[in-house]
Amino acid sequence: MDDELLELQRQFEFAQQVKSSVRLSDRNVVELVQKLQELGVIDFDLLHTVTGKEYITQEQLRNEIAREISKLGRISVIDLADTIGVDLYHVEKQAQDVVLNDPGLMLVKGEIISQSYWDSIAEEINERLQECSQIAVAELAGQLQVGSELVQSVLEPRLGTLVQARLEGGQLYTPAYVARVTAMVRGASRGIFVPSNLSALWAPLQQLVQEMNGASGVAVENSFFQSLFNRLLKEEEMLGSLRAGTHWTPSVFAIAQKECVDSFFSQNSYIPYETMQKLGISQAVQFLQSRYPDGTPLAAVFIHSSMIEMLDSATEDAIEQNSWIDSLSVLPSSFTSQDANKMLLLCPSVQSALKAKKALILGESYVLSSGFIKGIYDQIEKEAEAFSIQASTASLIEPSSKSSESTESIPANTDKGSKKKKGKSVSMKTATVETVPDDEEEARPKSKRNQKKGKDSSASQKLDSKAGGKKESVKAQEGNDVIPPDEWVMKQIVDSVPEFEDDGMENPDSILKHLADHMKPLLISSLKERRRKIFTENADRMRRLIDDLQKKLDESFLNMQLYEKALELFEDDQSTSVVLHRHLLRTTAATIADTLLHGLDIHNKLRNGIEVGDSKTQDPLLLDISERTALAKNLNGSLSKKALALIEALEGKRVDTFMITFRDMAEESGLVLKKLDKKLERTLLHSYRKDLISQVSTESDPVALLAKVVSFLYIKVHNKALQAPGRAIAAAISHLKDKLDESAYKTLTDYQTATVTLLALISASSGEEHDCSSDRILTKRELLESQMPLLRTLVLGDAQAQQS
To answer: pTM, whole model, 2 decimals?
Structure first.
């Protein structure tokens, strides 16, 4: 076998030395290789070199790439393509296969780096660390022209072996350097005795390290200090607790905290949260509950159960004695009203009293027994009723004081020369027209035949009041309750319990304010119920009042219309017309206006639940202008405005203006006024005539007789009912001159002249017993009395006048 091999070697060597007679060109070789590939003799891929004159297999390319990497340790793929002479595409492709199959290689940004390269770099880094103690990873990455993350990932597995250092926060530190900084952190941390933020501790340490390293030193990150601190804490070289990574509480402080809390709580049976915060305990409730499971957390303090027992005893005594107690007064000043309220709700005696309605908690901290509250309320309720009635009627006129003086009252606008008769009431059925000065008040005769129609009108008004007026009155009564103000209620409470005055009325948290707020709704409810009861009782009186008012106005307003017609006779005599208008306004018009205002005022009081006494007098009401205005202003809304307009017309000079405003007000109040037609006018004149005849027959006063005779003559001559004051009698007689014969007219004028003379003597008389004018007055009166039968004949005729 060996001989054959040797023979083959000799033959091969001979063949190589023999010069070829036929040489192949490059083109022939390429074609030959292609032919061999087509025939399958060459069954592997061949790669061209960059020159195109050589072929190389992929395996050979990988081998050459591996050889270059092992020789250099770190080489660029571009440099490999230039070195091997193969296209960059094929080199990149095969380089990826090489790196993929060899775990000791890595392809980073177009460079292939071996682990041996990193080992050598690690040794170099270690040598540098021994010189400068610390190196920044970023600095190394810049020198090696790779990323910091790559350098860090390569160095981490070599720390403690090839690189004797510690990697922290992007910095490499030698063990000696770490030990020195660790000692600094340990010393600084052990010097802290109160809760601190570690971030504030690292700043001076960082400055100290920089000074130690000099100008060439690298700044140390806070994370390096923090990691050293955490390691020391884990190794229990420091005692304490770390919260949220930076809040350090030394154990010595925690021990002192607990001792302070235990001491305060054991001595006082409570501890305020404010005190806990001063001790540095932020989550006070959780801390105390874990330490004292039997305690109770409140809004501002944490208490022991003994505090509740103490408060329970004090409140129980107050409830049993029908008194009151301010729980804050028996608790320390650090307790708030919310704390007191929660403690009261935990007291067994308070719970049972609230359940049995024997006590009440006001303003969170005040406990009042029900008997104590009831005693105060009963007193205030009586005062509140009186206050409500007084406030409702303060501006209204009491009718009883006016009706008794109606016969003696004189209107505010009475002339200075007027006089009044004393002790003599004026009947509504008399039509006295005296020759005394014009402002003398007198009554008018009335017809009784219109009463039936008045009843019908009153009945219709009653229906109207039932249909719509009642609901409106109820609403008005509900809305017009006179409610005592808070200050009044508090003043009444102070009057009942003077000790409450010490808290002051202005303090919103005082027991006085809370008790007033509690009682006021009760008082309002009581007053409303009382008003509702009175209103129900007053409903029937209101209906009767409206009916009576309707009847009075029916008769009086018809008489007013009758008297108004007589004023037409004097329209051409302006001065006399003004006197007659004003006289009618001050007598008949004033009476019916006062009757309406007074009736509506009583109706308004009854509707608002105000008690009104029954007026038994039947005398006509007579008010002055201030009283009328007060009554008008007490009415509601538009009715008040119309009432004020009526008063203004009453003080004017025209009867027709008064009649318009009176109709408007009556219509606004729901009353129906009858209009004087021909039939009613005849009836009233007939009744008026009969009354005058009766009065002329029985009249004994010579002065008063003249006015009655003149009134009768106007009915007889003009068919008009004239109401004339004393100073208008002369003008009235002169208007009869053309209607009477000369003898009758002369009788009237002579009698009127003698009457004026008599009145002048009486006015000038001094009233002394020996006054000489008294004889003249007596003489003149006897003269008039002697002429009275002659004057009666103008009305009664000769036979009747002699009988009279």
So the answer is: 0.44
The arrangement of strands across the sheet holding 366-369 comes to 324-326, 366-369, 359-362
Three-state secondary structure call for residue 104: coil
Alpha-carbon distance of 485 to 621, in angstroms, equals 36
SS (HEC) of 431-459: CCCCCCCCCCCCCCCCCCCCHHHHHHHHH
Give strand pairing partners of 168: 171
With the C-alpha atoms ordered 764, 767, 772, 775, is the resulting torsion angle positive or negative? positive
First to last CA, the chain: 204
Res 270: pLDDT = 92
Burial of 774 (0-12, 13-18, 19+ CB in 10 A): middle
Sequence letter at residue 279: L
Provide the phi-psi class of 553: left if phi over 0, else alpha when psi is between -120 and 50, else beta.
alpha
Give the position of tokens 């409206």: 546
Q: What is the pLDDT of residue 397?
A: 38
Whole-number pLDDT of residue 313:
92
Among residues 381, 391, 393, the alpha carbon closest in space to that of 526 is found at 381
Q: What pLDDT, in 10s, does the model give residues 665-696? A: 888 888 888 888 888 888 888 888 888 888 88
What gap in Å lies between CA 626 and CA 236, rounded to an integer?
100
Structure tokens at 327: 């729980």
Which tokens hold the place of 748?
């009237």
Amino acid 404: pLDDT: 32
pLDDT, residue 302, reads 93
| Phi, psi (rounded to 5 degrees) for 159 | -70, 135
At residue 214, the pLDDT reads: 59
Paired tokens of 166: 């510690």
Strand, helix or coil for residue 587: helix
Q: Report DSSP letters for 119-165, one per residue.
A: HHHHHHHHHHHHHHSEEEHHHHHHHHTS-HHHHHHHHGGGBTTTB-S
Amino acid at residue number 98? V
Enter the tokens of residue 178.
Answer: 């770490």
Element (H, E) at 112: strand 111-114
Give the separation between CA 717 and CA 723, rounded to whole angstroms. Answer: 15
The b/e string for 705-731 (b: 16+ C-beta within 10 A; e otherwise) is: bbbbbbbbbbbeebebbbbbbbbbbbb
In terms of C-beta density within 10 A (0-12 exposed, 13-18 middle, 19 or more buried), how is residue 495 classed? middle
* pLDDT under 50: residue ranges of the chain: 395-481, 617, 798-799, 801-804
Contacting residues for 215 by C-beta, under 8 A, at least 6 apart? none
